[in-house]
Amino acid sequence: MNPELTDALDNGPFHVALRTAIEARGLGLDRIRHHLAARGVTVSTTSLSYWQSGKTRPEHPKSLAAIDTLEEILELPEGSLRSLLGPRRARGPRTLRADSDNPETVLGGMDVRQLADQVPLVRENLADIITQQVVVHVNKHRQESLVELTMLVRARREDVDRYILLYRGDPGCDIEQVRLEAVRDCEIGKVVRHPKEPTMVAEVLFPGPLHQGDLQMFQVNISGTNTLSDGHGHAFRHSVEQYVLQVRFDPEQRPTRLYQFAQTQLSRQRKETGDMQLSANNTVELVATQLQPGSLGIAWEWD
Questions:
Q1: Which of 82, 124, 242, 273 lies 20 to 30 A from 157 at CA?
Q2: Is domain 3-84 annotated with CATH 3.40.50?
C-alpha cells in the first residue's frame, strides 16, 4: 500500500481516503459500480462520485453495507473506510416552531409548568445560546456521577444578569439529592425543586448585568443523580448555534451499544438517528449546529 493511501486511511477524512483508494486501485466509478452489482450491492455512479468528493457521505444502512463491499473491491483492510465515517451527522428535531415561550413544550409535563409558575423568568428568552458544551461522566455503577455544563450566551436585551437552568433527572432520581456547583464566572441563585417529580429550576447568576449583545461564558456542574442511566439528552426551547455533548464512561463499564437520538420533547420516545462508536479513551462525542427547538442526545445499552 502506498504511503499516500496509508496516510489517508489513518487520518481521513472519509472522502479523501475513498478517493485516494479509488485512484490507487485504478478503477473508474462505473467499473466499481459493476463490481458492486456483481456482489448484489446497488450504488449509483453519482453516489460514488458524491462520496469521494465530500458532497455527501453514506449514512443509510444499505449505503454503510456497501462500504464494506467497497473495501473488498478496493483491496483495503477490513473496516478501514467504515471507521472513518464516525457517528451519523446530527439532524435535530425541527417539528416545533422556532421560538417557544413555554418550557414545557420541549421539556414536557405538568411538573415543568408548575415550576415555571414559581420562577416566571423561565418563560422568557433572556439570552441566545452561542455554544453549549456538556461533558457527562458515567461511573462504574452505570450512573451519571457528574455533568459539566459550559455555556457561552449573548444577552438579548439590557440588564440581563442570569440564565435560568431547567433540569430533568432520569426516572427514579431523587431531585433533593441533586446538587449544582458554580464552577466559573457565575453563582447559583434561587433553586426550586418539584416535590414529586425529578425536575428543578435554578438561577445561574452572572458577575454583573449585561448590556444587549454582551457575551457571558460560565460553567456549572451537576452531581448527585445516583440513578442507573441509559442516555443523556438536552432539550432546546430556542435555536442554538452549537451544541457539543461528550459522554465519558468508566473503563470498567463500557456500553455494548451507542446511538444518537432526537425527540420533539424529553418525555417522548427517542428516535434513533445513527449508531455511534466508543473511542479508545472510553468517550463518545456529538456535535450539532444551528439547532431548532427539540431534544438531542446520546443513548447507550448495557449487557
A1: 242
A2: no
